[in-house]
Amino acid sequence: MxxxxxxxxxxxxxxxxxHSTTDVVPRQVPFLSVLSSVGPDRVWLALLHSGVIVGSVxxxxxxWRFGSFIVGSSWVAAVLGNMPLFSNGRLLQGLVLVLxxxxxxxFGMHLVRAQMIILYxxxxxxxxxxxxxxxxxxxxxxxxFHQGVRPGLSLMWLxxxxxxxxxxxxGAIAVTLSLPHTxxxxxxxxxxxxxxxxxxxxxxxxxxxxxxxxxxxALFATPSMMSIGRGRYAKLSAMTTVYxxxxxxxxxxxxxxxVGKRALPAPIAFALLTLATAPGxxxxxxxxxxxxxxxxxxxxxxxxxxxxxxxxxxxxxLWPDSTGKDT
Amino acid sequence: xxxxxxRSRPRKREWIAVLLIAAQIMGVARMPFVRxxxxxxxxxxxxxxxxxxxxxxxxxxSQKAIAERYGLPATDWHHAGNVxxxxxxxxxxxxxxxxxxxxxxxxxxxxxxxxxxxAIAPTSSAASSERGDSGAP
Lengths: 327, 137
Description:
The structure holds two protein chains of two kinds. By secondary structure, chain A is mainly α.
């Protein structure tokens, strides 16, 4: 139940630290003019940094809700303080943490879920009313940015198809996550969509992809999701493995592992996660730079995508049995 | 180990969360009627290349001063409406005598250049900008 939110907040804070997205941007043309009066810039930055650091510590204590609220508020404030560098990813991770901090009941959990539905509905609507998403021009621009070559006229149909498919998928995710009986479909669509985006674009948009996938799996996947992974191909599917490692499903999982034997105290678990993945990330970026240099960017992209899947798998593997650890 | 069932009635603090969600719904709903894409979960759905020049009392303003006032990158994955809105808001907050006349050349998704002149009237704090879009210069 709300124990899920506690772990969600802890995973987001930890992955942010691993991903080095804990910094805050300086103040520049704030959305609210009153934010200009919060002392000089160094005071503003000091306040935000203090909020992130203190909140990140508190989130691993019994005051986790307060900590989550403080970290999230700091990131949201950073977004509100800088209009020219407005960031979707930073706003999302901040809002999810704020909502986790405010949620006490099942109603509060529904609000965190509502956050994700609004996200996809907004993204789909924006693209729907933008002609460049229908004629392929935006995808062609993105293609040129990542591949260095703009697709010729003979390939514009592909760019157009990808653009339209993106609109359809984002709209479908918003709808399927909204309906009780199709939530699992929404989870699969969301995880697959973002994994493919990360692999093909070699771009995770800061914390955006991590946050979206973590929240959808943590709060939308139902026990019936397990039925997808049963059978001889269960262990061959990386995404299915993610779902099966979700501890709330352990008791019925073919893997036959109980969460009680695997759960570690939260600080130790997250320290291990940080230590395990930080050198991996350093090695990954070194490897990625090498692959780009020898003209193999696709190898780099694939490894980058696999790394993200690994982080999510490890994070979810450490997830506790939420029914027994609520506070 | 304590086991507790979730409370069914919303708590006071959760109404703050309701306000946050409601504000976002408004942010999405206003999208078709406004130019910018702030708080609508879609600000990065365009690539916008911008060249900004400005004059103050007819005298050109340096690029360094422009960067310090607006903080806008020359190339960014931001909606063009966000760029325009940022400049307008920055100008409105400046003392009228310090305001500039801004000339913005922007290209969206590698499309043709469009020119916008932003001049906030010094006697009014309302949205009284004169804007003229045209084709490539």
